[in-house]
Amino acid sequence: xxxxxxxxxxxxxxxxxxxxxxxxxxxxxxxxxxxxxxxxxxxxxxxxxxxxxxxxxxxxxxxxxxxxxxxxxxxxxxxxxxxxxxxxxxxxxxxxxxxxxxxxxxxxxxxxxxxxxxxxxxxxxxxxxxxxxxxxxxxxxxxxxxxxxxxxxxxxxxxxxxxxxxxxxxxxxxxxxxxxxxxxxxxxxxxxxxxxxxxxxxxxxxxxxxxxxxxxxxxxxxxxxxxxxxxxxxxxxxxxxxxxxxxxxxxxxxxxxxxxxxxxxxxxxxxxxxxxxxxxxxxxxxxxxxxxxxxxxxxxxxxxxxxxxxxxxxxxxxxxxxxxxxxxxxxxxxxxxxxxxxxxxxxxxxxxxxxxxxxxxxxxxxxxxxxxxxxxxxxxxxxxxxxxxxxxxxxxxxxxxxxxxxxxxxxxxxxxxxxxxxxxxxxxxxxxxxxxxxxxxxxxxxxxxxxxxxxxxxxxxxxxxxxxxxxxxxxxxxxxxxxxxxxxxxxxxxxxxxxxxxxxxxxxxxxxxxxxxxxxxxxxxxxxxxxxxxxxxxxxxxxxxxxxxxxxxxxxxxxxxxxxxxxxxxxxxxxxxxxxxxxxxxxxxxxxxxxxxxxxxxxxxxxxxxxxxxxxxxxxxxxxxxxxxxxxxxxxxxxxxxxxxxxxxxxxxxxxxxxxxxxxxxxxxxxxxxxxxxxxxxxxxxxxxxxxxxxxxxxxxxxx
Length: 704
Prior knowledge:
Elements: H1 4-19, H2 44-58, H3 64-72, H4 84-94, H5 102-114, H6 121-134, H7 139-152, H8 162-174, H9 181-193, H10 200-212, H11 216-219, H12 226-232, H13 240-250, H14 256-267, H15 278-290, H16 297-307, H17 316-328, H18 335-342, H19 351-372, H20 409-429, H21 439-449, E1 460-462, H22 492-495, E2 496-498, H23 510-513, H24 523-526, H25 535-539, H26 552-562, H27 570-582, H28 585-590, H29 609-620, H30 627-639, H31 647-664, H32 670-686, H33 688-692, H34 696-702
Antiparallel strand pairs: 1-2
Helix pairs in contact: 4-6, 5-7, 6-7, 6-8, 8-10, 10-13, 13-15, 15-17, 17-18, 17-19, 19-20, 19-21, 21-26, 21-27, 27-30, 29-31, 30-32, 31-34
């Protein structure tokens, strides 16, 4: 039965819900106070003003929750805009200074942590970036949840421009202990496909950031940037070109096409007042060396003519960069002036400059050995003899670095004189600085020292030209006449040879040790003849010698690595393995040649502890290796008998899966596949039981 009293109560309830709901927080909406007819904006400024007014008029219960809800709706604010609270905390962070107390800073961090879920993606990046600039105690504890929050947002990349990508990558690099590797991969992969809209200066910053991650999966995206860099590098100003070269060279990416274009653009700035600035020239030359790019003697002559008058005013760090690069490029007119400035400052030099000194010794040794063994050089084993900047018609105009024109008696005598001075300085100063070096520089010093014949007279190294762009051959690759090569691909001896014949050098062999003065009157007089002793017997292997105790400095380096292998990046592990191969470490580790080769505290607990540590680190960091480093390291593991270690089997299984995926994605290059084929042949012949346990079907598909 219809009751009028009940109908009245229902009407009152409907009226209250529809027209008197403003005091109720749950039912509050913005629709009630919106104008039915709105003003129309005629420009961007008026549109922004009207939008602000409409938001202020319609928001009676404005707080963080409503702002966050508005930002996440399709018709709300863009994600690049800053909320009232985001701007508040960004302003407070920018006002933090050294005088700000830790208690006040901790209070600010607590407030930021409270509202992390309410910030937009751009605000999260800005706040974390400014925390890295402050870099105080407690910053990382707030950056970690900020990064987790950012990477949980589905719209995280929809609003990022080049500046925000740079800030995000720089934050992740500084706080690597709270960064997941997959986050870096995600950013790198996206940037590799979507970067055309970015400013070139932002691309340069992003390249620099990605090169800081010693991770091949992150750096692989740089290959996708090559076409963009080549076509747009002219958009960069002069100051950014050396930084781009240095960043690409640092991560091992060295396409010669990029080096050519960057060089041409840099030369176009000639006449700029800072064109010959030492720090720019130093970075440019170091970048060229990393790219295996020779800019031509005309460019080097011009550089030298314009800096030689101010050489006494150049900071020794830049002097070291330029001198080491000139020697790597086989440009010698200035060696005396540079080292006369550097050597007297030995007390001011750090391990960085001594690393350059050791590299300079090797550059001089490599050049003189190339002159002595010039008749037997394999073409292509000396990259400095190719002028990459000239066209094919003009390439022959530049004289060879091994010609008499570039190797006068005066030049060669100067090289020998300063080799002795630098080597003596290294032997006197470096032993006390070994533990002052960071592990990456320490392993670089060790690897280059093993190249020096005065440190290790009968090294073992690659006997073939490695078709990998980023490696210098430590020694000239030689082919002697009347020597029948009976080795087959697959033999470990096909890859490595003990270079006893280098002992016949008049500059670095037994004759020099006995005090004989080498003949530097001409290039022809320096050349050795295989028909004469002792080279004839050394080439034929008739004078193979037993191993002698290792130099104390090399032992010191090995001791310093024993507990620091986790601190070595993939490139550092590759350098360490190459150095150990060179000194025949597997024979020394198992024999009694060097009783104090390793610290004694672990020798009784684990068999071959140092080799086990290296294999463990390779297994842990396998995903971070680039293929060039990994292939060279695996060849070295065969020579060092590291596949006797159980973990090496699992390492190979994981590597095959990684290569299979890369082959599917068309990442593997042809030269890398050729070396992989040679590696599996060598592994199958040296360790047939391990090879048979691997996925041979996957290997066959990989090598097709």
